[in-house]
Design a protein that fits this description.
Number of strands: 11
Radius of gyration: 22 Å
Oligomer: single chain
Strand order of the largest sheet: 3-4-2-5-6-1-7
Shape: globular
């Protein structure tokens, strides 16, 4: 079973699974019902999407719709990219292992794996509605998914709202990424899944299977009685996992800064670390501080024309103020012919170093702390609650 997963997982993702991913797959195929996944940041929790799909292809009794919920639009787009790549790999011209997966999922003729994104300023392609019996992936924000589940549905006509609510509540697996950020929503979905309390697989009188919930988090949260999937000692010995978990992070604690000079202190430290073309992420607890830090660093870049050239842009700001416009500036949009920010691209996985040895500075609030696959060389930040510090530290030296 494991060897089959390796080839199939690689066909969908382009890389081999970690040991914990194999174990999760085996558990799902064996019928284990996990209510939560407790995994350290940086180990690819989004891989639950292909694992769920491959488990279904192997005959696991899992819901046919996966609703992957994220509290950040930028992360929604990243999860959508993962799902779109899987759908493309299972396209009508798929061969070999991909063709086998396609057949196991019942994709015949011109049928494609439906992938839909539900978030603000993004039109729902409604692919998940075309065939209620098809395996489908829906990625969305808390407000978009929650409103549909509650018979509201932002941007949905009154006549179609019951259809959305009905499909969300039946034969659906809700996966809430970074669930510790949205406990009220997690409680809402849990209550909805408990409406049909009996196990549908052993209740033939029930017309349709109900909904299920799995919460993903890197902070070790859980309720008494939860069946939590977490790393074992064998998983920790997996070389690529060990490399990420043991990646060096040297911490320096500096004396308190007064509110009046906090932005200046953060900018000073970031500027110091930027030597040698390094990528520096600066996290601030307030939008006002983040804007001041970015402005100060940008001023220094503009002033040093001899070193960086005239008009050089080496800073990017991520504060969630105007989320749609900010997302377009960061990640771009092929349909709108908008290129991604060259500064933001330097913080993505596998980005090559700057050929001219120039630094890059990403200044962010909590909008950049969670879920986004950033990989910085250095981090400068103010001190916040431990759960948030875990997320911030997870953006440094991920690989």
């Amino acid at each position: 079973m494991t060897s089959i997963l390796d080839s199939r997982f690689a066909a969908l993702t382009g890389y081999q699974p970690y040991r914990w991913q194999r174990r999760l797959y085996d558990g799902l195929v064996a019928g284990e019902n996990f209510s939560a996944l407790d995994l350290p940041t940086g180990l690819g929790k989004t891989s639950f999407i292909p694992i769920w799909l491959l488990a279904r292809a192997a005959g696991a009794e899992l819901p046919r719709r996966l609703v992957y919920v994220v509290d950040r639009r930028a992360v929604v787009d990243q999860a959508t990219t993962v799902a779109d790549r899987i759908s493309a790999a299972l396209g009508t011209k798929a061969t070999g292992v991909a063709a086998e997966i396609r057949s196991a999922l019942g994709l015949t003729g011109e049928a494609r794996l439906p992938v839909s994104t539900l978030r603000g300023q993004h039109a729902d392609n409604r692919a998940w509605l075309e065939n209620p019996g098809a395996t489908a992936i829906i990625v969305g924000t808390v407000d978009m998914i929650g409103s549909r589940l509650l018979f509201e549905g932002y941007g949905v006509s009154r006549r179609i709202r019951p259809v959305h609510a009905g499909l969300m509540g039946v034969d659906t697996l809700f996966v809430i990424d970074e669930a510790h950020l949205v406990p009220p929503f997690e409680a809402l979905v849990r209550k909805a899944t408990e409406l049909g309390e009996s196990d549908w697989r052993h209740a033939p009188s029930q017309l349709a299977p109900g909904a299920q919930l799995i919460s993903l988090s890197a902070t070790g949260r859980g309720r008494p009685g939860d069946r939590v999937f977490s790393l074992t000692s064998e998983d920790l010995d997996d070389p690529p996992v060990r490399a990420r978990l043991e990646a060096a992070k040297r911490l320096r604690l500096l004396p308190d800064a007064t509110p009046g000079d906090l932005a200046q202190r953060l900018a000073d430290q970031a500027w110091e670390y930027g030597d040698g073309g390094r990528r520096v992420v600066v996290f601030c607890n307030s939008r006002k501080t983040a804007q001041a830090v970015e402005a100060e660093i940008a001023k220094r870049v503009a002033k040093d024309k001899e070193r960086f050239g005239k008009g050089a842009t080496l800073t990017e700001l991520l504060v969630g103020e105007r989320r749609y416009r900010e997302r377009l500036r960061m990640t771009g949009d092929e349909d709108l012919d908008i290129a991604a920010s060259p500064v933001f691209k330097r913080f993505r996985a596998g980005a090559p170093p700057d050929v001219e040895g120039r630094p890059a500075f990403l200044v962010a609030t909590s909008a950049g702390e969670v879920g986004i696959d950033l990989d910085a060389d250095d981090l400068v930040c103010d001190l916040v609650a431990w759960e948030r510090m875990i997320q911030r530290l997870g953006r440094v030296n991920r690989r």
